[in-house]
Structures are given as structure tokens and as C-alpha cells.
Amino acid sequence: MKVIMIDPGHGGSDPGACYKGHEEKYYNLLIALGLRDFLLKHYQVNVIMTRESDRELSLDERSRLANARGVDFFLSIHHNAGGGTGFESYIYDGKVSNDMASLQATIHNEIVSSISKYSVVDRGKKRANFHVLRETTMNALLVEILFIDRDTDVALMQSAAFRSDVVSGLGKGLAKALALPDAQKAVFKVIAGSFGDRKNAEERVEELSKRKIDSFITSFLLDGKTYYRVQAGAFADRQNAENLVQTLKGYKIDAFLVVEGAVSSIPPVSQPKPTNTPKPTSPPTSTPKPTPPPQAPSKPGYSILGESVLKGHQLDEFARKVNPAAPLLGTYYIALGRLYGVRGDVAFAQALHETNFFRFTGQVKASQNNYAGIGTTGPGVDGAQFKTAEEGVHAHLQHLFAYTTTSPLPAGIQLVDPRFNLVKRGIARDWIELNGKWAVPGTTYGQMVLALHERNLSDSIASAKAQILLMEDAMKQLTIK
Q: Which one of 52, 88, 144, 354 is the catalytic residue?
């Protein structure tokens, strides 16, 4: 697969262009993270980021990283300043490959087309002696999305819809320019048991047949030994596969999913180890209705890194609908989540799941300020304790940061997570990839976290619509006839 390096300009103590409290570095990162997710979801491609959070890198560090990793294409994302308006792109003004101008035109035109409905000025395809264009050895492009010192441009930059269209244009442009293959479609196979003894697998097939569920046996090698899986179905739609898993679990059959054929965009599913004997099953008195699994707020692949879409007060209001005594932690999760580049609103949902809406009905106590269950491994092991609520949120986000990246903590941040260096770095790009890693067996851990986040989103949308109606009524009453 082709390898693309995405470079969000500036970062850390270098904010880039600034205007009325707006800093370029954050907008660069928002576009870059969105583009990474878009590419991994839609195409067969590997993506490397120069930074995934608010950290500082020199220009030399960026170009050396690209050259050392041998990437196929380098894209640097910036926002402009200087009193102008509109979008422009740059390639090196010295010697470039024969096809670089054509690649620039393809990507540039796709972006312009994607944002044309916003009447954005096309400032053209340009050339310049920028360091990251001059010092990188592969084809490289730098884009200046809009001007941070023009109010109309900033209004667009703050629009999630506009940023989504920019990401789409960049992604489709790169795909066309580099001939990226479409992502392979995943097949979700339902496994109704995995055994070391084929006879047990045959008994499971017979049991399923009595319940009018067709199945067959497949074999595989693990550590030099042959095991036998009973496959009860294969689906292109994950929801249908999950429904069958829930039906089987209603029959007390320990079913799970195996995902095949996916490239980058589909997270792996945690699978239990084979057993030599099946769990005893007893037919239920009545056929249970399939219970659908928790619904995530987006398709599989909802990244841990990214921008929060909810505000701190919306998180607190949601928690206090269930637990009126819940601590007011929403602002911490949003503000600190932005610092680490982690979706603070989803991390808050994870804290709700871990603490039962901050009622601490499990092993961890409220006095520990441990909102993620860090270090709690079993009875008698109460886990980590943090001095303040803010420190507890820092620890939670640092633990997520360890799981999802291999980058060092943002400059100037003290390490407070005692298990940060015990985590195998970068093993979970998205929330569902935490399954079987953050919690064991935890085969639906990520789905449950995302289900809580979805509920919060739904409640906040309903509240916003109600407020809009009240404001519209007020406007009508104020209108002078």
C-alpha cells in the first residue's frame, strides 16, 4: 500500500498565525486528523502523522521524519494570514518530479470543487521555496486552507460541515492523484464456538441445527495445534452479524465475530481462546428475541484521537440526569482532551461506564479520583489514587494517549498515569479496538462506551432543538409588525 505522511503545521509553543484568540495550529490539526480517518476508512493506504496532538516539531524534524520513513507522498496542512481570503496550494519552486504539477492540479481541483458551495476564492496553484517542500525527497504538497485573520474565513474554519468538505476534497484528491484502491469490504463471520476436540464442534453444529441455524466446521492452527470453529453465518453488514451473536448468547452459546477482508477501516474483534469442552447449554423456555448491541455514534473506526463535539456543560448535564450528585468534570475532559488530542467527550462516556455515572458502585471509590479504573486488576487491588479531580482526568487521558499513539506526552505535561509505560503503545486506534485490551474479556467494551456517548449526543440534540424553538418563539414576539 502507498504511504502518505500528513503534516499538521506548527504546534506546541509555535501557534502559527494568530487572530482574535484563534491559533492556526489547532485548525491544522483538526483537518489533518479528519483526513487521516477519511483515508483509512475509504482507501487501502497507510497514513503517518508528523503530530497527532499539540506538540512542537521543527521543520527539520518533519522533513527528516518523512525521508526516514520513505513515504510516497508528503502533505503539509496550513492556514494562511496576511489579509487575504481563499484557498491555495504549493509545490517546490525548484526541481520536482515530472508528475508533481499534475498531482498538484488533481488534488487542488478536487478541493476547490468540494468547497465551491461556500464561494471560497481559488487563489491558484503556486510554487514556493518552503522547507518541507524543498527538503523532502518524495512528492510533496502544502495547502493553505483559508485565512485565519479574515472573519468570514474563520467562520468557515469553525464549521464542522466545511471542515468535513475540505477533508473529503483532500482525501478524494489524494486518492485520484495516487491511484489509491478502495478499501476492501469486510465480511463479519459469526463463530458459535471454538474447540480443541472436533467431536465437541460436531455436537455444537447438531445443537444449532435443532434451533434451525445452519452452521459448519472450519479448522485452524494455533501454536501448532488444530482447533475447530463452528461458523454460523457470514454477513456484509456488521449489525446483522451482531444480532445473530446476541441470539446465540440468548441460547447460552458463547458466540463472537471474526472480521475478514477489511483494510484499515474496520477494527479487529476480540476473540476468545478455543476450549476443549463447550459450555453446557439448556434450551430456554421460550425463544428469546435478538437483543441488538449498543449502537456507536458512527461506523466502526471512530477514532480515539480527534475533536470533541460536545461542550463541558452538556457532559455534566447528562451525568446528572442519572446521578444528581455527579462531580462536574465536563470542562476538564473537554479542555484536557484538546491538550492531548483525545476526544474528551467520548473519554467522559468511558468514565461514566467505568464508574457507573460516578456512583462508584464497583471496587474503585470516589476518593481515589480514578475515573478510568487504572490499576484495578481484581479483588483487593483497588487501583491508582490521584490527588485531585483534574489529576484524575489527566491520568485517564494519558492512559488513552498511551493506547492510541506512540508519541511522547505534550511538552511540559507531567506524567501522572502510573501505568503509562506498561501499555503497549499504539495498539488501539479507535474505541472499539479497546475491546479485550482495556477490559478483559471486554468483547463489547468499546461499543458500550460509544453507546453512552450516543445517548449524550441524542440528549444534547433534543435540548438544542427545544432551545431553538424557544428562541424562535421569542423572536416572533419581538418582531415589530
A: 144
